[in-house]
Design a protein that fits this description.
alpha/beta; 10 helices; UDP-N-acetylmuramoyl-L-alanine:D-glutamate ligase
Length: 301
């Protein structure tokens, strides 16, 4: 079974305005709501691709209830912990001539609630996949991903980590099956300004030396690179299309890759499906559906 872990989910409120001007009352051209959080986005795309998963993490208040109802209505399994204080955050995504995001803080997580989540994760079995994605609430320890992997390390669980900075780096010692930085995140880890495919290859190899088995780097319009655990480089050019909204694109890439690899155990196919899923989400105003993902796949054939 595939499990996705979202420690700080959100309801994403996307609002479109003609021009973003501070200090004025603005009226939107249109607006939309989406259930967000990186792991939740991964479960959503996995479901579109016919792969079952269970979404885990923390949900609180009326916003958390709305997310769980939305996931359940889609047939996505849920096994969340429900904090007593606060509510699942609302992220405001303003779209005009540029993208502006205001992300909420999230609920306060107590030690007992954190322990309950760990106990739920103890139920994972050999052969399961755990995808840990996104930021953490401020009341959780900074090494939470590391602690979870340490706790489960003796089991034959495949870990996937999609997080920025120290959250990702600290997890490498537990040999995750896959990590997915984008070019900016990869550069930040090594305090370098990276811009080329050769840069991505060089610094992906450094992450492998630090413990990562497979490194998937999303490079926007420049495509995507996979450096696999056997030392082989795989490159996928960007799919053609008009970028509408980048929110969830990286999460969709992770989901497409995991779905592709779980079906075929073929890195090239997994990279292609991951790239198609990421592009499809970038080409629409929400999270892509199966039809658009496979349409992107056909464009490359």
């Amino acid at each position: 079974m595939i499990y996705t872990l979202t420690l700080n989910p959100a309801v994403d409120y996307v609002v479109f305005v003609d021009e973003l001007v501070g200090g004025k009352i603005l009226r939107s051209r249109s607006d939309m709501f989406f259930f967000g959080g990186k792991g939740i986005n991964v479960s959503w795309i996995l479901n579109e691709l016919g792969i079952r998963s269970v979404a885990m993490g923390f949900l609180a208040g009326f916003t958390g209830k709305a997310i769980e109802e939305g996931l359940s209505d889609r047939g996505i399994g849920c096994d969340f912990v429900y904090p007593e204080n606060g509510f699942t955050r609302i992220n405001v995504k303003i779209r005009s001539d540029r993208e502006t995001d205001i992300n909420g803080k999230g609920p306060d997580i107590t030690e007992n609630e954190y322990t309950l989540l760990l106990e739920k994760l103890d139920c994972l079995c050999d052969g399961d996949v755990l995808i840990m994605a996104g930021s953490i609430p401020p009341t959780l320890p900074d090494d939470v991903y590391e602690n979870i992997m340490k706790r489960l390390y003796k089991k034959k669980i495949e870990f996937v980590v999609d997080a920025a900075g120290e959250l990702m780096v600290n997890a490498l010692k537990y040999r995750p099956f896959l990590i997915k930085p984008n070019m900016s995140e990869l550069g930040e880890i090594f305090s370098r300004n990276l811009s080329s495919v050769s840069d991505a290859v060089e610094y992906s190899a450094k992450l492998q030396k630090m413990g990562a088995r497979n490194v998937l780097v999303s490079m926007g319009a420049d495509g995507a690179l996979l450096l696999d655990e056997y030392g082989k480089q795989h490159f996928m050019p960007a799919f053609p299309g008009k970028v509408v909204n980048t929110v969830g694109s990286g999460d969709s890439m992770v989901a497409g890759f995991v779905a592709g690899y779980s079906k075929t155990a073929d890195f090239d196919y997994a990279l292609k499906l991951g790239s198609a899923a990421g592009s499809a989400t970038a080409f629409c105003e929400g999270i892509a559906d199966m039809k658009l993902i496979y349409k992107c796949m056909e464009q490359e054939d």
